[in-house]
Each structure stands twice: as C-alpha cells, then as structure tokens.
Design a protein that fits this description.
Radius of gyration: 54 Å
CATH superfamily of the largest domain: Nucleic acid-binding proteins
Low-confidence stretches: 37-43, 552-587
Number of strands: 30
Strand content: 35-45%
Mean pLDDT: 82
Length: 587
C-alpha cells in the first residue's frame, strides 16, 4: 500500500515517484506486477548462490554473518584466509543450506572465494597464459599451486629435467603457463617446464645471434658429468669439457667446479646447425705450451714426477700444466714389461729424454730407456755371425724357438734351422721350454733388434758330401715304408733321411693305389735313381730293384724296360714327383 502522507512529507509528486520506482525495480513492478521481483528474491536465497553478508558478531570460533534471512549464518574463522574478520565487514559467502540440521543457515566463505576466483581466472586468463602462484602442497602425481584457485602442476612439468624430489618446491612462488582449462570440471593444469622452455628458446635465439667464437661470457654451472660440465649461458647450455678446464691434470670436473657456481668461460666453437657451444676455462690463461721447444728441447734429459699410469705407459709431469708420455715400449731396452707398474709408480721422480714434441696436439713423447746405453749397439760386437752360444729356450712358437742369449736379449731359432734332414713341423718335436741348447749366430739385425740362430749349422750339411757319397745312383739299398701318398711312397733309408718312391716306380703295370703294392712299415729293397743335392731329394725305384734281381734269372734287361714309352724320367722325380697333399687313408 502507498503511504500518501509520507509522499506529501517528502514533497514527491506522483509522476516523480513512478519514475523512481521504474528506475529501481523496473517497469513491470512500477505497473503493479510483483511476481518477477518476488521470484528473483527467492532465487537469490536458493542454496548454491553467493550472497553478500555482514559480520555482526562472533560465536566461539565461528563468525556470525547476516545475509538477510530470518536468522544469521555461521562461518568458521579458518575460512578467512585473507585477514582477521571484524564486525561490520562485508563478505561474500556461499549459501549451502537455508536451514541445516541444527536450524542454522549454513554458509561457506572459502567456497565463495573459490567460485569468485575461478570466475576471475576465466575472465582474465586463457590457455598458454602465464600465471604466478604459491605451491601449497604435494599431491598424487604432482603439486597443488594456488593462483587464486588451486591448480595442478604435474611432476613431469615442474622443470626441464624432472627433479628427483619435488618437495623442494613446497611453499615456493613459481611462474608457469596454463596448459589446459576444463571449465566443466573447474580444473586447470599448468606447466613450469613449458614456460622455462619457451623463455630459454627466446633467450637462445637472442644469444646465438649476438655471441661469436672467442667471446668471454658469464654462465652458471648446471650439471657435472665425468667428461665435463654443462654451463647455462642464458637460454642455451654450453659444454665445458674436462680437458678445457685446466692446464693441469684433473680427474673429475668437481675438482674445479660445483653446481650453481657462476663462472666466466671462453667460447671455443659454435655449431649453429646443432645449436651446440664448446666452452673453455683454461683458455682464459696463457698456455704453458707456448715456447715449449725452448724449455724442453728434443734429445735433452729432463726430470719429472709420475702422475698417472695406464696400460700403455706412464704420464710424467715436467712442470705445472705440462705432461709427457713414456710409452711402455720406451721404458727398457731389454726387460719384457707387461704393465708399466712393474717399473714405475705414481709420484716416482724420473729422469727421461725428450723424444718428440707435437705442439699442435700438445703431446710430448718421453723415453726412460734412452737414459741408458742401448745394449743392442753392443750385440753385433759381442755376437758376430758364426759365434757359438748357449742359451735357454724361453718360448716356443709354430715358426721356431726363442732362445735367451743374455738377460733381455733373445735370438730366434727358426724351425727350418733345426735339422738338415728331418722334416720338423713344430719346434716342440726337438726342443722343450727352459731347455739349454747350443746354437750358432747366423745374423744380427741391429736396427730391427733381431738375432737369427741355427742349430743344424753346428754340423756340416750332410747333403754336401756325406749323403752323395753314401747313396749313389744305381745302388740298391734297404729301407722301410714310412708314409704313403697319392703320388708315391716315402721310404726311410736311415734316421732322418727319406727317399721318394714315385707311384710310377712301384711296378711295371699301372698302379692306381700304392697300398696295393706296399704297406706302411714294410721293409723293401729299392734302387737309387737320382740324388739331388740342391733340392735335397733322393729318387727311388722298387721295380728297377726287382729288375736287377730278375736279370740274374734271365729276365728282360733294365735298360730295355726303361726305354719303353711312358717310362718316368729323373728317377721318378720329374713333374710327377712334386709333393702332393692328398694322403691315402688307411682302413
């Protein structure tokens, strides 16, 4: 009902009152339609709506808030995270229930704050935007970050290299990019890693366009490995190899650097295609290799300390930043060394000779044995060709035996120099390891440090006079079959002396298989056809020996039989007498 008296007291005309009513509540209400006004008020006080209220008091740990309903609502003080609540403060709360189980209006400030925060995020941010917030706690799969509303930061998106323990990020303020916004579920996923990668990509592009080889730049050590250190130059990591950290020897980069250390480095090389940068730390100082030839001339003796031993030699420090290598082959003239540690140890002081300097590769070759007289320079004088020596068999090989003439000096007794007459396949047929033997020096090669020895040369070559005089063509001799091959039979005439009985000299008829005529171990009478002292061969004939026996009984003469077409020449040692490799297998 309109209070006419109040209107007169306020001096407001009917038209003015109608205008004010339209402005405040709308035309429909001014015309008398109150349904819309009432339905809106009812909707505002429905559960799930945010209401503006006023703090009117406190009840224990609860804050009493009047939101315009028949009774006040209670909100726990813990929900006022933005400051201490005071009477008279206006706050927004979410109406959860008009009348709860206790008959009190149920309100939530925290939920209202989250809804308003979510609305602000949606209004002001979109995917790929940068946000800032505080890491509040660790949850399954990552971290919870407060950017006004709780958002999820997966563990894989915390940093470029996934940290082993993400607890270090708790309570830290971080910047990240929004990866995904799910409005329906009110869920936001952020990535600190993507933000870092994007920023580093921009920094990398700027850096590569401004730096050049030879520049000295500042960086931060980000990682250490056995082979070097990775230094962040601001957008791109450069590799500082261990060999470019110090002119002196270091075993691990941690001896020089530590993670997060600020360091000045020199740019040695830039690979723009692969976006790789090689850095140097020692290059900031002058190189100790300058004028190295003046300080350590080739051929001069110098002193140094052993700093490292490897299988192939020992490294000797000549001065700070300068090391040379004594190769294992340069340690002793005569001693057989399996490992350098047999002669030297770390920290040993040595006198060495400078053998070579490669300034470009920064390498110095040193020698220990050159400090002493080379015993091989005296070998030719001490053991000229023809000298008879005694030595111990040190080792056996397929091709011969090594005989120690004196400590560190070995001679080679080749398998072909063991016997004049015996066919030796391996030296162990005649020699044993550690056995003492007599030999004669055949040759000394001082340059190659080799001595050739012979055992058979201790005696005269029987093929010169003894064999030719004892075995003359035409003689019939006694022998024993030792070996049968596809081309003939070997007959032992005496120890270590054999003759060849060619297959064509076994019988008058054609022989396909020598075993049809003779057997291994069989004693035979054979005729000597030829003695070849140059090739050291004796040609024999079984059938001719039998002819000789037959002539006494009136048989065909040997001359007539030998003149028959197809008879072999050179006593069975012509081209058919070449040694073959196919032996007949005995059953």
């Amino acid at each position: 009902m309109v209070d006419e008296t109040l209107l007169r007291e306020l001096a407001v005309s009917d038209d003015e009152a109608a205008t004010l009513l339209k402005e405040a509540l709308g035309c429909e209400v001014a015309d008398g339609d109150m349904d819309q006004l009432l339905s809106g008020q009812i909707e505002d006080f429905a559960p799930g709506h945010i209401l503006e209220g006023k703090i009117v008091g406190f009840a224990g740990d609860d804050v009493v808030i009047d939101v315009g309903l028949k009774s006040e609502g209670l909100v726990d003080k813990g929900e006022f995270e933005d400051g201490e609540p005071k009477v008279g403060d206006k706050v927004e709360v979410l109406l959860e229930s008009v009348e709860g189980e206790t008959g009190v209006v149920e309100l939530s400030k925290r939920k209202a704050d989250r809804i308003r925060g979510w609305e602000r995020i949606l209004d002001t941010h979109k995917e790929d935007d940068i946000v800032q917030g505080k890491v509040v706690r660790k949850i399954k799969g990552g971290l919870l970050v407060d950017i006004g509303v709780p958002v999820f930061l997966p563990a894989s998106q915390v940093d470029i290299r996934r940290p082993g323990n993400i607890d270090q990020y708790l309570d830290r303020e971080i910047r990240a990019k929004i990866l995904k916004i799910d409005q329906e579920r009110r869920n936001i996923v952020i990535s600190r890693r993507k933000l870092i990668e994007d920023e580093r990509a921009e920094q990398k592009e700027r850096l590569l366009s401004t730096i050049k080889e030879g520049d000295i730049v500042e960086g931060t050590v980000k990682n250490l490995a056995d082979f070097g250190a990775f230094v962040d130059l601001g957008g791109i990591d450069g590799l500082l190899h261990i060999t470019d950290m110090s002119w002196t020897r270091i075993s691990h980069p941690s001896e020089v650097l530590k993670i997060d250390q600020k360091v000045s480095v020199k740019i040695l090389h830039i690979d723009y295609d692969k976006e790789k940068i090689a850095l140097g730390l020692k290059q900031l100082e002058s190189s100790p290799w300058e004028n190295i030839e003046d300080r350590f001339p080739v051929g001069h003796r110098v002193k140094g300390a052993v700093v490292n031993i490897v299988s192939y030699g020992a490294f000797v420090r000549l001065e700070e930043g300068i090391e040379g290598l004594v190769h294992i082959s340069e340690m002793s003239w005569t001693r057989r060394i399996n490992h350098p540690s047999e002669l030297v140890a770390v920290d040993d002081e040595l006198e060495v000779v400078v053998l070579d300097i490669d300034k470009e590769k920064q390498e110095i070759s040193l020698g220990m044995k050159q400090v002493e007289v080379n015993p091989w320079e005296l070998v030719a004088e001490k053991y000229p060709a023809g000298t008879v020596i005694e030595g111990k068999v040190r080792n056996l090989a397929n091709y011969g035996a090594f005989v120690e003439i004196e400590p560190g000096i070995d001679g080679l007794l080749h398998v072909s120099d063991l016997s004049w007459t015996k066919k030796v396949s391996h030296p162990n047929e005649l020699l044993k390891k550690s056995e003492t033997v007599r030999c004669v020096v055949l040759e000394v090669d001082q340059e190659k440090q080799r001595i050739a020895l012979g055992m058979k040369q201790l005696e005269e070559d029987p093929w010169l006079t003894a064999i030719p005089s004892a075995y003359r063509p035409g003689m019939v001799v006694h022998g024993k079959v030792t070996k049968i091959t596809n081309f003939g039979v070997f007959v032992e005439l005496e120890d270590d002396l054999e003759g060849l009985l060619h297959i064509s000299e076994l019988a008058d008829h054609k022989v396909e298989n020598p075993q049809d005529i003779v057997k291994p171990g069989e004693e035979v009478e054979v005729k000597i056809l030829r003695v070849d002292t140059e090739e050291r061969k004796i040609g024999l004939s079984l059938k001719r020996a039998q002819w000789g026996a037959g002539e006494q009984e009136g048989g065909e003469s040997a001359e007539r039989r030998a003149a028959r077409p197809g008879a072999p020449t050179r006593g069975g040692m012509d081209e058919h007498g070449a040694l073959g490799s196919d032996k007949i297998e005995f059953s």
